[in-house]
Amino acid sequence: MEKSCVTIVENHAAPGRLAKHQTVLYEAQEGPRGMGLTSVLVSIGSLVFVLAVLYWHIFLQMGTQWYVDPDYSHGFLIPLLSAYFVWERLPGLKGKAIMPSVVGIPLLALGLCMLIVGTIGAELYLQRSSFIAVLAGLILLLAGGEFLRILVFPLAFLFFMIPLPAIIVNAVAFPLQLFAAKAAAFCLFNFGIPVLREGNVILLAGTTLEVAEACSGIRSLQALLALGTVYAYFSQRVRWKRWVLVLLSIPIAIVANAFRVSGTGILANSWGPQAAEGFYHTFSGWLIFVVAFLLLLVCGTILSKIGSRSRTVHRESLP
Q1: Coil, helix or strand for 210?
Q2: pTM for this structure?
């Protein structure tokens, strides 16, 4: 009888010990997982600091260009916005399993090769963009593909802070100059102003205007494209609407620049060539940029209304 009682006590005691061990095991499993994200973020932050030391001269040179060239002054805001996009995604990252991937090693090596080649060849765009490739490789190597997928938008958004390479500027600027000159000549002619166009040069009665590379609109195009991306991100919830709004930034910027050149021609014809220089030229650039963004707002409002009425009718039809 005592034996059976002892047996019963052991049978009751065993599950208790098992439950206790299970609890300890559960805490041991949950603890590292909770610390895993923190440790990975700390590791990434430490490596970013190391990379910042490695890239400090590149960042300093790029920041100087942002300060000196007003066409790239939006570069100061891009890292801040990208950091906000990362912070917005932190709750989603906490629920993801950390699965380091060796695929990050080739991507990391590619970024470092871009840095080396860009430094040797004095190619600024390659040097600057290598930081984004290295950062993506580190995330993939330390956290895995799921983390990189979630953070791909903040990483890709950083490209807006990098001034365009000379090869792209040289290839795109002149066609944009010709388009702006043709559009300006067409508008001036229809306003009754005698005008003759030769390439990117506009000949008026009292002065001659040249649509230079700075007036091609390619730099303001990058700024409006970045602004359009941010506006599309916050204003639209459907992915295809976001893409449409971002793509609409391109023709809006090109057409707005053509109207800017036309307005400069009208002012130069009425008040002389000084109206096309200095304060008037700078002010017209800001004014046209504001008008272009207002047009983007109108397009965003129209896109927001597409499909909203059908959803409202569907809700009203429900019992």
Answers
A1: strand
A2: 0.76
